[in-house]
Design brief:
Radius of gyration: 27 Å
Helix content: 40-55%
Number of helices: 14
Largest sheet: 7 strands, antiparallel
Order of helices and strands: HEHHHEHHHHEEEEHEHEHHEEHEEEEEH
Shape: elongated
Strand content: 5-15%
Number of strands: 15
Length: 448
């Protein structure tokens, strides 16, 4: 009888250990619907992109991912907006999104390269560029694919990868806005040069540059959607975005917005893409100076006002900055607002000349090609903080090789510490679980 009990105890312990290791290997995490919905909309956007569709296998994979995400979202809606999902499944979907995002680099970026690349690297990179790139160009220029993160080298740090714009070289910068209700659609909501309109504008900026860039790129895709037009006081654009999981390219019904509601709709969508939804966002031009601070935007440069060309040439603008002038302060009959888009213009169209500069928002700034306008040391005049010698920071805040090396070391240490603590956590939880079950087994056997 004692031998039989011992066998039962051993079997019980083995089953406990097997169950524990299965639990560790199939780690489940509770996901909120506010995380799943933007992910699903991003998958949908990429899946329906013409460039991604050329990769049939990836296209089918994304379609399957979207179907699975919709199923999880439905389950979450029936369970207090939460659902348990294996972390590995979400990781796989996010990796597929990154793969698809890297296919969306426009031809202009695919043809860029550096003279320091050797022939073997050039050939490898050329295989990753579009098939219609000229052979002679491929021999001299290569697609830069060093950025294998979610962050695209073409669009920088963003929660949303646009599908309808390209980068324009030569020191050109642009803005995106709902302009007028007159004329054809392409003149109503559009990407346009930094031309003077006789008014001077306040500049508002968020402390979250990634959110800003996301908002600007969303606005660009909205402007290039033929179903969106100018509508005075219109809210139908925002309503359609909500119905379509905040996917700009999924809007197929005619809808519209005026200049302020266009900015509001883009901002609302950006917050949802960042998984920090703020609910419906609505404001009008005269109320924007009070409304924008509620969403993290603050007036810059002591609330100075300048014309559009002056702001464009100043080097003080950052992608996603909101410029606004209320009607009551406007030099014209009406107020207006727009989003600064930087060096991006509609794909497939000849970009008009619109010379200007942009960068990190400090005095001097950077041109669209990434060259500093002045050669002074990087000193913040207000805080007297030294931030490095000239050249320490290059285009779009990219680090020099030395700083990048130490940044990677820091990332590795963070990863290593996280891994160590995870192992310790698993060991502690495992042993406590095993000890507790052994104790229960012994108590149970003693009672018998």
């Amino acid at each position: 009888m004692n031998k039989f009990r011992k066998i039962l105890v051993i079997i019980l312990l083995i089953s406990i250990l097997i169950g524990f290791f299965c639990t560790v290997n199939a780690e489940k995490i509770t996901y909120d619907v506010n995380y799943l919905t933007p992910l699903a909309s991003n998958v949908y956007t990429l899946s329906n992109n013409s460039k991604v569709a050329e990769n049939i296998e990836l296209k089918q994979t994304l379609d399957g991912n979207y179907t699975q995400l919709q199923e999880w979202i439905n389950n979450a809606n029936n369970n207090n907006d939460k659902v348990e999902i294996e972390k590995s499944e979400i990781d796989t979907i996010e990796e597929n999104v990154r793969k698809a995002g890297r296919l969306l680099l426009p031809e202009g970026n695919q043809q860029q390269g550096t003279n320091t690349q050797n022939n073997s690297q050039s050939n490898t990179d050329n295989q990753q560029s579009s098939t219609d790139t000229q052979t002679t160009q491929n021999n001299n220029q290569a697609k830069d694919t060093t950025d294998n993160d979610q962050e695209s080298s073409e669009f920088g740090d963003t929660y949303y990868i646009p599908t309808s714009i390209k980068r324009v070289e030569g020191g050109n910068v642009y803005r995106v806005h709902a302009n007028t209700r007159k004329g054809p659609k392409e003149n109503q909501v559009l990407i346009s040069p930094m031309n003077n309109d006789g008014r001077t504008y306040y500049l508002y900026r968020s402390s979250d540059s990634k959110l800003q860039r996301t908002m600007a790129f969303i606005a660009a895709d909205l402007a290039n959607n033929d179903n969106i037009h100018y509508e005075w006081g219109g809210k139908s654009l925002s309503q359609n975005l909500r119905k379509n999981n905040y996917t700009p390219t999924a809007i197929t019904q005619l809808c519209g917005a005026d200049c302020s509601m266009f900015v509001a709709a883009s901002l609302e969508t950006a917050f949802n893409k960042a998984n920090t939804p703020k609910g419906p966002i609505e404001f009008y031009t005269d109320g924007m100076r009070d409304a924008l601070p509620k969403y993290g935007f603050k007036a810059q440069y002591n609330s100075e006002r300048h014309s559009i060309p002056d702001w464009g040439q100043s080097g003080k603008l950052e992608i996603g900055d909101i410029l606004v002038v209320p009607a009551k302060e406007s030099e014209g009959e009406f107020g207006h607002t727009f989003i600064f888009l930087g060096p991006y213009y509609t794909s497939g169209k000849i970009a008009p000349s619109s010379s200007g500069a942009y960068g990190n928002g400090t005095s001097g700034g950077y041109t669209a090609e990434g060259e500093e306008i002045d050669d002074k040391q990087n000193i913040d005049e207000k805080s007297f903080r030294f931030s490095g010698l000239p050249g320490d920071v290059t285009y779009e805040g990219e680090l020099t090789p030395i700083r990048n090396f130490f940044a990677k070391i820091g990332d590795f240490i963070d990863y290593l510490l996280g891994l160590i603590f995870l192992v310790i956590k698993i060991i502690i939880i495992g042993f406590v679980n095993i000890a507790y079950n052994i104790f229960l087994s012994i108590v149970s056997l003693m009672k018998k």
